[in-house]
Task: structure prediction
Amino acid sequence: MSTIIVEDVPVDTRHWIDGQRRASASGQTFTDVSPIDESVLGEISAGGRAEVDAAVDAARRAFPAWAALPVSERSAILRRVADGIDARAEELSRVETRDNGSLLRSHRRGVMPRVGQNFRYFADHAVDAKHEDRQIRGHRERITYDPAGVVAVITPWNAPLMLATWRIGPALAAGDTVVLKPPEWAPLTASILADIMAGAGVPAGVFNVVQGTGTQAGAPLTAHPGIDRLSFTGSVPTAATIAAAAAPNIVPLSFELGGKSPLVVFADADLDLAVDLAVEQFDNAGQVCLGAFRMLVQDSVAEQFLERVVARAKGLVQGDPREPATDVSALVSRRHFERVAGFVERAVAAGARPVLGGGPNRDLGGLYFRPTILLDAQPGSEILTEEVFGPVLTLQTFATEEQAVQLANSTRFGLAATLVTGDPDRAERVSAQLSAGTVWVNCFFVRDLGAPFGGNKQSGIGREGGDWSFDFYCDVKNSVFSPNGWNQKGEG
Result:
């Protein structure tokens, strides 16, 4: 069957290529499983080289007309896409909750409104995006954003629609066309997005969806010579593979990769706030790249802080994400569950001590892993340096500001950092020393779409957001006009 019903919402399981639904030429499918109860949601068309070639070809053919469309008309279409998302926000929320296990209340309150805003913001930004002319030795320099071409977007499963549209919005607003490969563990809302695009009047070929695994669909897409930009969110090893595949074609890359971010708590901090921020890291069962899972706490308040965090975390409700009372849901798949469990088992075997959780939730079974806090991990150990991507926090203590900075920067990652202090001077001083693309001071997860976002070190390449997105999704051109050489008619 080409349509499945998920939470009373019909979802087409075929690809979206050149404005039409298309099953895989091979007839192959992959099984989509809900992490809530490990039930099968449906068989999804599994794309390969044939579907990638067709999607890229469609995007290339659609590019000239879409790029030539006046920006006001492109933006009007994208605002209609945003309206369509808003109109179906409840359906999108229910489907994505069932598909990847994220909290339904989070989708309703924040995630799906942000999905629509990803289009609406960049639709508006495209109208206003420009640089002032510059003057050099009497010559005029005009800097313009030219559409780059076909953009490949490859997104993860932890927030599949929001993270996809964060790239698709600016790419389409810039005049590019898009081929999206959604995550095989949570592909369904991408299919609904294709329907919304069509309903909003996005021309055939401008937006395409090829479903499938990384090996079958991702590999031919990343190596395709018809791709002009490639945006990827995911793990460092996968990014290395993608970079190698794209290198022969010299394709510009934008990577948002892993994180092992610190939550740095000084003794002068508001401990109520610090505890709130620590417990917040269990959101989405810890499957958040920006999460501050390494708690670094000044030794004079560490005992009090830990006691309060453990008490609060014990009150978290774990269960079905569709229930309003649920705070922590399941991990996305059996393979990922075993990966997270393996990290904790190895840490404990190496001497780390769980003061909360430490293993599966036997009462719920399935893919539910208890919120976990580990103490006494050895410096430089795996649990302190590698991304777990689950509900697992560690705690280390420090005595001085210098030690806090050293601990915070002691990983190969640099995506984000959260700092809690009551001293404004310390906040300025320490934030300036933290190696992170985003530093939050006395807050968490606050960011405007016009601000730059990306990671340092192995947490990524490049920045997106506002003009930074257009710097990537466009060819930035500088045209220099001489004051000389003009005839009376203004012709050169």
